[in-house]
């Protein structure tokens, strides 16, 4: 199957190295407003953030008309890029508290409780910084995009939380969830960057569509990897979404081709209830069995085909833009996203 | 002592009744974006919000040049007023989770854990709505004020959380805390309203100073009431700030006039540590004793004099503004704030 050329992420990021460094510095510049021990913990939280994909999208989209690599960036573009990443990091920090709340059992230590309060506040501080950076763009439309997206993300999380462990769901809800969770912020990053760059409205919409579709593909790929990845690369056991009660695209395809889907769902419900009552043996073994069977099933390939379809849409959105190192990197990001699944 | 004329809050609010109703409706208009059960819980959370003092400040400040009561409001003023109240409510919702995290002992039920996650997200949803409403004002300066204030509030909460149960503190930190906690948002409400109303910069600054000083007085009064109020009016036992490890102005004055302040602090530290280890009898009885002694001490009157001094500054800030029902209400709010302590 693996006939794609391999994309190196370093090469994709090359045109925006300097910009990313500015974003990084801006995000970590909190020393003045937080006293030392907290500032340290805060920078640690930001530092463990990962791929910086969202600021990458903003920086690339803002420069699609730039003639050469590393064209100097306007400060409001850097502010936007820092804003979207800070917003993303804030939601991750709160997710940990929310997930921890669901999974952790037994009485927490007082120290852990203090940390929980501090973690909630650290997330809020990041929301505040994100709003501050968005305000720095000084562009009312960009600020509205920011506020809209924040609402979409949180609304989606509320829906996801309330839909957890409801094992009879339709697939439609999945697309709404991954739009809210991931694609909305990707789309916001590219749309807002295009607005700040002063592009024509049709180009703004094209770049928004690019971000949206790339985001949908990215989340589907993430959801595939949650089943197919090794414990080591995932940093957690495979199948953790399903174990936490969240159903994703590969599982929907798995159910679709399963000869006894209804019985399987009944079995899941029963063993989940038993786990709730303290006996999680059956639940854990059922999840492991599903992970094994799903990996060997056509569900993975079916989900990947959907990701590819979203990526085709993303690539098509770029057709009207001039060839440039930035546009090339946007195209290569599409290849990069899906190659992680092979 | 009680020689003041009594102010009726209904009379203070009379000029802005219609405006407050618009703010209320705007805050509760979430049906479309949240599915029914959550929308219901959300509106309940907002509904239990209380005095609506912050939107009151915004509406009054925005209309200081209006000729008569109930002058029609511009939508962006209503958006601002809804934004400050939503931001306030969001912080209250998160405070409950953070306080609960510190105080609750033993293993929480899974149901309580789900509620914790949902509560964090409900607070985030309110932050998002607040940001959205701020963006609706379409005024970059107002949006910057919003983002600045959010950061100040969260930063102050982080400091307060980390200073808890440090019984040797200087009074200076107290003023920073109550500015961050309360006065910053009061000041933001009046400043932003003045900006939206198109007032001269000197008037914007005067109204900001009014909000700031009123907010400082309001929080000092709240901190007095935490010691002097009855369990019934407070809805919790008197002395709960101190019991939770937060030191407020009346306690600083109490310590100042205490013949054996150092020994008392040592005693507090020891009994707090014992309470940490599970034996809270000594700690509870010490707090009860301090509450009794403090009520009978000059500390209450000393703290009230400080609140009065802030209120004098607030009143003085209004001197340059024309007489109107709105300006009169702003003046009467000063009387209202302190009369709660008699």
Notable traits:
homodimer, 342 residues, Farnesyl Diphosphate Synthase, 74% helix, 0% strand, mainly alpha, globular
Question: Mind explaining what this structure looks like?
Answer:
2 copies of one chain form a homodimer. With 342 residues, chain A is mostly helical. Chain A has one domain: Farnesyl Diphosphate Synthase, CATH 1.10.600.10. Chain A contains 16 helices and no strands. Chain A has helices spanning 9-13, 17-28, 36-47, 53-62, 75-103, 110-136, 140-163, 171-196, 201-228, 231-234, 240-243, 249-256, 261-276, 281-295, 299-317, 325-339. In chain A, helix 2 packs across helix 5 and helix 5 runs parallel beside helix 7 (140-163). Chain A is globular, with a radius of gyration of 21 Å. The termini of chain A are close together. The relative contact order of chain A is 0.12. Chains A and B meet through helix 5, helix 6 and helix 7 of A and helix 5, helix 6 and helix 7 of B.
């Amino acid at each position: 199957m693996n006939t794609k050329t391999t994309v190196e992420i370093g090469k994709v990021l090359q045109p925006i190295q300097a910009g990313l460094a500015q974003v990084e510095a801006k995000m970590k510049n909190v020393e003045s407003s937080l006293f030392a021990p907290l500032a340290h913990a805060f920078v640690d939280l930001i530092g463990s953030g990962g791929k910086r994909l969202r600021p990458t999208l903003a920086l690339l989209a803002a420069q699609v008309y730039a003639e050469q690599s590393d064209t100097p960036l306007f400060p409001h573009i850097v502010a936007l890029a820092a804003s979207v990443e800070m917003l993303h990091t804030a939601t991750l920090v709160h997710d940990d508290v929310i997930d921890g709340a669901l999974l952790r059992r037994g009485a927490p230590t007082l120290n852990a409780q203090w940390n929980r309060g501090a973690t909630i506040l650290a997330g809020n501080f990041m929301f505040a910084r994100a709003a501050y950076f968005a305000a720095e763009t000084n562009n009312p439309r960009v600020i509205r995009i920011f506020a809209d997206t924040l609402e979409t993300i949180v609304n989606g999380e509320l829906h996801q939380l309330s839909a957890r462990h409801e094992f009879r769901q339709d697939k439609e809800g999945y697309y709404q969830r991954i739009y809210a969770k991931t694609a909305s912020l990707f789309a916001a990053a590219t749309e807002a960057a295009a607005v700040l760059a002063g592009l024509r409205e049709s180009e703004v919409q094209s770049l928004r569509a690019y971000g949206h579709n790339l985001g949908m593909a990215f989340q589907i790929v993430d959801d595939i990897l949650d089943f197919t990845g090794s414990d080591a690369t995932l940093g957690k056991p495979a199948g953790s979404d399903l174990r936490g009660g969240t159903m994703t695209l590969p599982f929907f395809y798995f159910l679709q081709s399963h000869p006894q889907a209804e019985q399987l769902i009944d079995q899941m419900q029963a063993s989940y209830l038993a786990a709730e009552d303290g006996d999680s043996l059956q639940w854990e073994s059922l999840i492991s069995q599903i992970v094994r069977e799903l990996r060997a099933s056509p569900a993975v390939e079916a989900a990947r085909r959907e990701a590819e379809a979203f990526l085709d849409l993303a690539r098509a959105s770029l057709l009207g833009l001039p060839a440039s190192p930035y546009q090339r990197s946007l195209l290569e990001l599409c290849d990069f996203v899906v190659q992680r699944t092979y």
